[in-house]
Amino acid sequence: MLGKKLIIASTLLFLITCSIVWNLSVQRINLYKKNISLVEEITTKNKLKDAESRLFELYNISKKNVIFLRDLIELDLKTNIPIEITQQKLARFLNIDNNYFQVRLIDRNGMEIIRIENKNDTANTNNQYKGDRDYFKKALTLPKGEVYISNIDLNIENHEVEVPHRPTIRFFTPIFLQHEVKGVVGLNLNATKWLDNFKGQHISFLNSKNEVFYSSDNEKSYETTKIDLNQKDPSGYPYYHVRNISHEGKHIWTLYTKPDLASIQSQLSEYKKSTYITSAILTLGLLLLLGIVYMLYKKNRQVNTLNRIVTQQLNERNTLLKEIHHRVKNNLQVITSLLSLQSSFINDEKIKALFRYSQYRINSMAIIHEMLYKSNDLNRIDYGRYVNQLATTLIASMKGRKKEIDLKLEAEELHLNLDTSVPLGLMINEIITNSLKYGFKNKDKGLITIKFEKAQYPNYLLHIGDNGSGFSETVNFRNTKSLGLKLIHMLTLQLKGNIEKDNSEEGTHYIITFQEIEQIS
């Protein structure tokens, strides 16, 4: 019975896995189709961008050229150079750059004064009236320095379209003499050479009237396009990639191209073939693989179960440790309260002081346990925050909040374990207590400085001191009967360190080396 159930389960798993494999294969094919379409889109967009860049280059150069011609003519007019000399200069310019086929100087009444074409490089005596042309009217009203750029259209001579057709972009700018408009100068750009760059690239071009000026779809030239550029294939991909270009917002022209659908289909067919072969091979190996996966699943389930148990035990341990630290802190506070209560019945000030200093020592340990049970890290405490709280509490307790005893603390990113924090905290407590008791005995102002540094591993440096009255000459720092100093020396030894008195600064200063005690848990 068990064997039949296992066979049924294995068969179902085999069918499900096969379904997943083939479903993934279909998804991969769809993704591949999307990716190659995206690559083709990027390629075509780059082609369109390159075509636009070429036009921009011609556009910017043409603007500079027509401004150059304007400056040349204005200079000739100012210096009364004969018009024949100006004609020769314009002819030489036209001969240099065969992108332009015509340069003209038109007076303010619309009559051509100079008309030079690059087919003969000489002035044309058949000057024409252009006062009714849109480009003349608009250029004549422009401010000094502005350039009018026409739409791309066919060149017109004597009110008739020139044959053979010549796609033209006109650049005109006004000529001023003594702040008075004298006419306009213009360059006719032959756009044929720019359009010839599209050959073999499957790029088509429409002017701002949607008239076809270059087509890779065999559309009739110079007529309004009949193509819907928003068409999409059954998969939702566009038939055409379109780039609208506008030069200084004057005209909007359209470049568009088709993706290489034949190439996409060929690549997709090859990918389908290889994907289906791979899926078939995977299907044949699934039965063996499923057995291995099942065994690994069982092992993994056992590991997860053990991990959950361990995590639960760790959480319980952390909860217990937090409770222990909380209770230790509470018990230390009870002891502090008992000492305070007991000292209230004592009249001898020296004995009361001993009780009070004992309270300070106990409080230094209580703060550590309080920070641990409030922290997420039960192994280490933020020692800078701890020392700040300890020192601030001592200053407020011994000197009151109105006294100007300042604290300067430097302890960035210092985290110590419990076994190190307690003796080090007691040591700092003793030193600060001595500073407040003796160093600032009759003073309301002062500064306590505490600075931690990382020395050569595994040592730390503690610079601690005050700018108070300093050590009495009768006190032997190394051999003293003072409980506080004895405790400081003992705690230094416990921390595998050394303490030196720094006599280079005013007041009392210590340099203490210590190590973090290895915590056994």
- Fraction of residues in helices? 40-55%
Shape: elongated
CATH architecture of the domain at 52-259: 2-Layer Sandwich
Total DSSP helices: 9
Overall SS class: alpha+beta
Return the string of H and E elements. HHEEHEEEEEEHEEEEHHEHEEHEEHEE
- Residue windows where pLDDT falls under 50 for at least 5 positions: none
Taking the sheet with the most strands, its summary is: 6 strands, antiparallel
CATH homologous superfamily (4th level) name of the domain at 52-259: PAS domain
Return the average pLDDT rounded to an integer: 82
> Would you state the CATH class of the domain at 52-259?
Alpha Beta
The proportion of strand residues reads 15-25%
InterPro entries: HATPase_C_sf, HATPase_dom, Sensor-like_sf, Sig_transdc_His_kin_sub2_dim/P, VP0354-like_sensor_dom
Domain Histidine kinase/HSP90-like ATPase: 419-518
Catalytic activity: ATP + protein L-histidine = ADP + protein N-phospho-L-histidine
Keywords: ATP-binding, Kinase, Membrane, Nucleotide-binding, Phosphoprotein, Transferase, Transmembrane, Transmembrane helix
General description of the model:
Helix content is 50%, strand content 20%. The chain contains 9 helices and 19 strands. Strand 18 (498-501) and strand 19 (508-515) form a beta hairpin. The mean pLDDT is 82.
List the helices and strands and how they pair.
Elements: H1 2-78, H2 83-96, E1 100-107, E2 112-117, H3 134-140, E3 148-149, E4 153-154, E5 156-157, E6 160-161, E7 167-177, E8 180-190, H4 192-196, E9 203-206, E10 212-214, E11 241-246, E12 252-257, H5 261-343, H6 349-374, E13 380-382, H7 383-399, E14 404-410, E15 415-417, H8 418-439, E16 445-454, E17 459-466, H9 483-494, E18 498-501, E19 508-515
Parallel strand pairs: 14-16
Antiparallel strand pairs: 1-2, 1-8, 3-7, 4-7, 5-6, 7-8, 9-10, 9-12, 11-12, 13-15, 16-17, 17-19, 18-19
Helix pairs in contact: 1-5, 5-6, 6-7, 6-8, 7-8, 8-9
